[in-house]
């Protein structure tokens, strides 16, 4: 301990940012306390966010036999009558194992965990209260990290009842599978849940005020993705706002501004998220959150306006990914105790765990064009790989964006099975400044989906190679 403080660092929240910060501090020989208001560690990521939604996806794909339908036909099913209980059993098992792993990680690193709600007394003291509000104790620390994450935004005019009208938290506790589902919001969370339920052969209608979806993703990738959505019957209502949402008996009714109504057994509202900072008493430590409960930090150090108080993870906003939150927690802990880290890589991968998956890193074709960068693209369809024939995904593509001047990779964009795994091959080459020649010359295991990199590189080379008259291509 430093001076008269109880701990060197107190971490509020045990999600990706909080747990990584606490363990990193412990490895630096510092005393760390993690305060977690949930009954189990792991935060939103483990209990209601990343892990549950991805587990739900895997459960659905396994039970439906979705991956084999390209071989056995669209009517193929592993389990005929899938219930909500089937999905919850898989969720409960996964969450239990994750919590067990994290408990063990904290224990072997000497990190202390206290369960309760945290509330600032001042810039170095934090109260811990029970669920009923009873004060348990007050702790002090030289440094404090706020890593409380976010919760679903719930507007007052949406009649949530966590049964018919739900958000991305309460949908995980469903007791029955609906025959039809309306998803309001075509952001990442909305897209993921819409496609997961569509894979269960549930009639899904996706509504969003924007004309297009996932605007940060390469448009050719999205076109391929949209084709898949329409292929398995999802209804898209884009470019129209929701006028009102109401319940009519056991159904939810969304009235749209274009005059149409969408009726369904269940409605999932995904209108963004808000930082879970409202109960922290931030005024006592000199901080204030914005209208969505987020905190502003120095992006290099993760310090707030109060130098001894740090914040990391979703509570600081963009990019709000579990992967980046882990690194932010590590960076905050290292800076707090005088250990400087190299600047993080300027680019990082995005993973969208929809059905099918999407993953992307670097510049997309539209961005390269906007920057007036001379470029070429190479494309591989998964059906061109032998592995694609063996596993039968039936769709999917990989796209490389390449600089014509340097031959370096500018971006990699993938839609299809294992996209979030495959992206890391391209990530390594891109971040190390490699050229697409690596893929031209590399030998890949056969048969694998990773061969798509070589196919895409050869496709680009065919476009870039000199013409037969010896002149360079235009």
From TrEMBL:
Residues 7-329 form the FAD/NAD(P)-binding domain. Keywords: Cytoplasm, FAD, Flavoprotein, NAD, NADP, Oxidoreductase. It comes from the Bacteria. Its EC number is 1.6.1.1. Transmembrane segments: none annotated. SUPFAM superfamilies: FAD/NAD(P)-binding domain, FAD/NAD-linked reductases, dimerisation (C-terminal) domain. The keyword Metal-binding does not apply. It is found in: Cytoplasm. GO terms for molecular function: NAD(P)+ transhydrogenase (Si-specific) activity. InterPro entries: Class-I_Pyr_Nuc-Dis_Oxidored, FAD/NAD-bd_sf, FAD/NAD-binding_dom, FAD/NAD-linked_Rdtase_dimer_sf, Pyr_nuc-diS_OxRdtase, Pyr_nucl-diS_OxRdtase_dimer. It holds the Pfam family Pyr_redox_2. The keyword NADP applies. Signal peptide: none annotated. Its cofactor is FAD. Residues 349-456 form the Pyridine nucleotide-disulphide oxidoreductase dimerisation domain. Conversion of NADPH, generated by peripheral catabolic pathways, to NADH, which can enter the respiratory chain for energy generation. NCBIfam families: PRK05249.1. Belongs to the class-I pyridine nucleotide-disulfide oxidoreductase family. This is Soluble pyridine nucleotide transhydrogenase. It comes from Acetobacter fallax.
């Amino acid at each position: 301990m430093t001076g008269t403080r109880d701990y060197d660092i107190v971490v509020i929240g045990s999600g990706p940012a909080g747990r990584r910060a606490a363990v990193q501090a412990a490895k630096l020989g510092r005393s760390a306390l993690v305060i977690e208001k949930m009954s189990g560690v792991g935060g939103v990521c483990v209990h209601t966010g990343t892990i549950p939604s991805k587990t739900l996806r895997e459960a659905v794909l396994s039970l439906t036999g979705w991956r084999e339908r390209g071989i056995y036909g669209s009517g193929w099913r592993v389990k005929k009558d899938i219930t909500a209980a089937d999905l919850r059993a898989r969720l409960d098992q996964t969450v239990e194992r994750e919590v067990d792993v994290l408990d063990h990680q904290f224990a072997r690193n000497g990190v202390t965990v206290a369960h309760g709600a945290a509330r600032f007394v001042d810039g170095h003291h934090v109260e811990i209260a029970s669920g009923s509000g009873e004060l348990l104790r007050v702790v002090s620390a030289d440094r404090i990290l706020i890593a409380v994450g976010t919760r679903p935004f719930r507007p007052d005019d949406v009649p949530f009842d966590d049964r018919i009208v739900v958000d991305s938290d309460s949908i995980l506790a469903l007791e029955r599978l609906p025959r039809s589902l309306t998803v309001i919001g075509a952001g990442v969370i909305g897209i993921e849940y819409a496609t997961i339920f569509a894979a269960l052969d549930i009639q899904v209608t996706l509504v969003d005020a924007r004309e297009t979806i996932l605007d940060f993703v390469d448009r050719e990738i999205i076109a391929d993705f949209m084709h898949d959505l329409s292929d398995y019957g999802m209804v898209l209502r884009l470019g129209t706002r929701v006028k009102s949402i109401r319940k009519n008996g056991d159904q939810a009714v969304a009235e749209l501004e274009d005059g149409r109504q969408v009726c369904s057994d269940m409605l999932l509202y995904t209108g963004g998220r808000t930082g879970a900072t409202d109960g922290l008493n931030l005024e006592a430590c000199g901080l204030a959150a914005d209208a969505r409960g987020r905190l502003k930090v120095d992006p290099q150090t993760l310090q707030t306006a109060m130098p001894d108080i740090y914040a990391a993870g979703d509570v600081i906003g963009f990019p709000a990914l579990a992967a980046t939150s882990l690194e932010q927690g590590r960076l905050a802990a290292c800076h707090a105790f005088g250990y400087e880290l190299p600047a993080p890589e300027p680019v990082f991968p995005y993973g969208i765990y929809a059905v099918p998956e999407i993953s992307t890193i670097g510049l997309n074709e539209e961005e390269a064009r906007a920057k007036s960068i001379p470029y070429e693209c190479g494309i591989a369809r998964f059906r061109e790989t032998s592995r694609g024939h063996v596993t039968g995904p039936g769709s999917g593509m990989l796209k490389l964006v390449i600089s014509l001047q340097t031959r370096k990779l500018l971006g990699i964009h993938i839609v299809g099975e294992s996209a979030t795994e495959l992206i890391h091959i391209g990530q390594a080459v891109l971040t190390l400044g490699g050229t697409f020649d690596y893929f031209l010359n590399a030998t890949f295991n056969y048969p694998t989906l990773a061969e798509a990199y070589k196919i895409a590189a050869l496709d680009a080379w065919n476009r870039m190679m000199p013409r037969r008259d010896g002149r360079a291509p235009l």
